[in-house]
Amino acid sequence: MKALIYADKNKTEFTNKPEPDIICDSDAIVQVTMSAICTSDLHIINNSVPRAKKGVTLGHEFTGVVVKTGDKVKNLKTGDRISANCITFCNKCYYCKRGFINNCENGGWELGCTIDGAQAEFVRVPYADNTLTKLPDNVSYKNALFVGDILSSGYFGALMCEINKDDTIAVIGSGPVGMCAMMCAKYMGAKKVIAIDIDNARLKTAIEQNLCDYAINPHEQDAQEVVKSLTHGRGADGVIEAAGCDETFKLAWQIARANAIVGIVAMYEKAQILPLCDMYGKNLTFKTGGVDAIHCEKLVELISKGEISTDFLITHSVPFERIKEGYEIFKNKKDNCLKVAVTY
């Protein structure tokens, strides 16, 4: 079968690999119908994920059809349409029992990182009963493509902020994860959502999709002053940092009110500084992730009911044989690209 692999720093290769087979009796083999290119894939290719193995098939964001199951798989059968969690988890270890599946002692972020992922025609999925979510008839592959990664990440970021109905939530970064976080913050009852980004096209999309109530470009406005003006001088009740650079990390705690929560779902490529002396007295709570993507079934249900939708995020689509072109579009944000869907 054809597969796209991480070959070396800044290098991918299209290659042939044998079709995967069952290794453990909790595995399933999935024929991939649609996958997506993720910023995490770029981090791997940039050599910024030390765990990632050279030669691994990339990709962890996908939908497909179950074609084979191990003997201990009980909730899935051949022919089931599924969306995949980016995290494989056993549901039995210390961390899984507490809902911290990103830290599963037997799984975690494996697909497309330490084991072959889904930018291939077929993929082996460990702990299939936990990792795969069956799709109802009214949820298409396109509808469900982002359930197990960026939508779960946005939901996770919103959960971190412990949102109350009168809260103002600021989301830094209007990329796909940031937009999912805005959507989920509104679903959880935030009264006002503020989008912050330096890309006016993305801010426009967030406004047009009714994901946010206010949009701020820090290169054109003083973000701290605008947030204060919208919050009676206090600052945001919760801040979701979904951008992942030095400036946005600093801005996150600067725009938070005293006793706020700062939820960080961004992946940084270098260490950040927490200047406790500068924020002393604000009594902030910082939460970080690795997404604990344990709400996939709920998210599919919300999509099925029409309460949330991520379809608008797919701005570009390429067939699998042109996936390298898709990477260039996504990496360089060509034509205001948000997400690239890869079809098989």
N-to-C SSE string, H for helix and E for strand: EEEHEEHEHEHHEHEHEHEHEHEHEHE
When the domains are counted, the total is 2
Number of helices: 12
Here the CATH topology of the largest domain equals Quinone Oxidoreductase, Chain A, domain 1
Query: Which word captures the global form?
Result: globular
What amount of the residues lies in strands? 15-25%
Can you say what the CATH homologous superfamily of the largest domain is? Medium-chain alcohol dehydrogenases, catalytic domain
Looking at the overall shape, the CATH architecture of the largest domain is Alpha-Beta Complex
- Termini gap: 12 Å
The helix content is 25-40%
The largest sheet, given as strand count, sense and whether it forms a barrel, is: 7 strands, mixed
Mean pLDDT: 97
- How many whole angstroms does the radius of gyration measure? 20 Å
Low-confidence stretches: none
Number of strands: 15
Task: Give structural notes.
Helices cover 27% and strands 24% of the residues. It contains 12 helices and 15 strands. By secondary structure, the protein is an alpha/beta fold. The strands form 3 sheets. Strands 3, 4, 5, 6, 7, 14 and 15 form a 7-stranded mixed beta sheet that branches. A 6-stranded parallel beta sheet has the order 10-9-8-11-12-13, sandwiched between helices. It has a two-stranded antiparallel sheet with strand order 1-2. Helix 10 links the parallel strand 12 and strand 13 (285-288). The protein is globular. It starts with a strand and ends with a strand. It folds into 2 domains: 2-146 and 310-343, Alpha-Beta Complex (Quinone Oxidoreductase, Chain A, domain 1); 154-288, Rossmann fold. Helix 5 (147-160) crosses helix 6 (176-187).
